[in-house]
Backbone:
């Protein structure tokens, strides 16, 4: 279904209505066929979806998954064909599936594919549209009940942002069929990938509450068919991503956060208390976690990812909101008294561009091609010998 039009066929209405919502381009759309299935359940023009994988620079990227999960709507398809292709366009796998439920997992493990072609060959009933609301490249694994052998959630914040603590989730679960066995070369264990999402929930008195979104850091297995997952929150992920830094002058905080988080597809929420707040200063090259810590400390914000899917920035409360009484202390709890702080010294720096002095910033030999040179302090690159400057900032030159 394109974002320009859709067809409504609820209860097999014969009439069709074309419509275009105001926010069409901002809406997530499913996949609908343009034609009805025929009397023989097949399509004269079978619905076909081709997915090709690229990175942000347009370079083809390989993917591996245990299969593909579909969420069908209204009527099940009878036969769905999936083809997986490699880098050179060669066919890696060709498989037909017969869905028997609306949330259906096409169980067929393929590694290092660059393109997938899905074709709906036929429907379960005649004269029906094919409709799917979502496609997930992989399988949604639900870990609950007796399968979970242990689970630990660690949540921390720093009220004054001296550091940005990383929230962690540790989960161990039982796999009696050895599906995630380490030594099985065809098992699902090899498909564990850094940054795979894990969403934690708790259920109390039949009320389900989301505890946060975490990302796989390490997966280990044992001979007892138990798999252990170590996960970190988005702050932990950002600790592994480099930020090029720069010099900023009266830059809105929202713009700075957008510059850091949007390239990583991270949604954030900035409290209204920081509306109109700007920052002037220098951010050195480092991790994006470090850059966020510097910004949070400068504006007096708490950075929090607990119990949410986004990164929140809000001022530390100035009043006591809750008291933890001794009755809540349980066996194993420890209380540590930190060093008493009686004085805080703050040093401010101001950088001024020197225009009457030219220095050699870097001298190196590179192979032919594009190369990025980084600088440990703010500079203004004016010229280069033996090459050409594509672009430069106060901390880098390409």
Residues:
């Amino acid at each position: 279904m394109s974002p320009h039009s859709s067809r409504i066929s609820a209860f097999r209405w014969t009439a069709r209505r074309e419509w275009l919502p105001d926010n069409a381009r901002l809406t997530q759309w499913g996949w609908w066929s343009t034609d009805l299935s025929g009397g023989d359940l097949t399509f004269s023009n079978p619905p076909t979806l081709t997915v090709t994988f690229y990175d942000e620079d347009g370079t083809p990227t390989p993917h591996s998954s245990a299969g593909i999960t579909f969420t069908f709507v209204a009527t099940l398809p009878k036969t769905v064909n999936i083809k997986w292709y490699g880098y050179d366009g060669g066919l890696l796998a060709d498989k037909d599936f017969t869905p028997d439920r609306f949330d259906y997992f096409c169980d067929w493990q393929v590694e290092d594919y660059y393109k997938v072609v899905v074709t709906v060959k036929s429907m379960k009933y005649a004269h029906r549209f094919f409709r799917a609301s979502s496609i997930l490249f992989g399988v949604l694994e639900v870990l609950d009940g007796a399968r979970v052998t242990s689970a630990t959630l660690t949540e921390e914040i720093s009220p004054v942002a001296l550091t940005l603590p990383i929230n962690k989730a540790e989960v161990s679960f039982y796999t009696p069929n050895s599906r995630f066995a380490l030594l099985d070369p065809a098992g699902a264990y090899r498909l564990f990938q850094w940054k795979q999402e894990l969403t934690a929930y708790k259920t109390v008195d039949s009320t389900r509450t989301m505890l946060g979104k975490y990302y796989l850091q390490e997966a280990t297995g044992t001979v007892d068919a138990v798999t252990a997952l170590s996960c970190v929150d988005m702050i932990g992920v950002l600790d592994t991503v480099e930020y090029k830094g720069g010099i900023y002058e009266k830059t809105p905080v929202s713009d700075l956060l957008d510059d850091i988080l949007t390239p990583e597809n991270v949604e954030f929420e900035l409290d209204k208390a920081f509306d109109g707040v700007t920052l002037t200063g220098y951010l050195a090259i480092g991790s994006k976690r470090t850059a966020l810590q510097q910004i949070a400390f400068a504006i007096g914000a708490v950075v929090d990812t607990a119990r949410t899917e986004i990164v929140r920035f809000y001022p530390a409360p100035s009043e006591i909101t809750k008291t933890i009484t001794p009755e809540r202390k349980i066996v194993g709890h420890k209380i540590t008294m930190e060093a008493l702080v009686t004085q805080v010294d703050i040093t401010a720096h101001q950088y001024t561009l020197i225009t009457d002095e030219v220095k050699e910033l870097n001298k190196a030999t590179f192979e032919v091609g594009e190369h990025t040179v980084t600088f440990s302090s703010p500079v203004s690159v004016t010229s280069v010998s033996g090459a050409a400057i594509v672009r430069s900032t106060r901390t880098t030159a390409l």
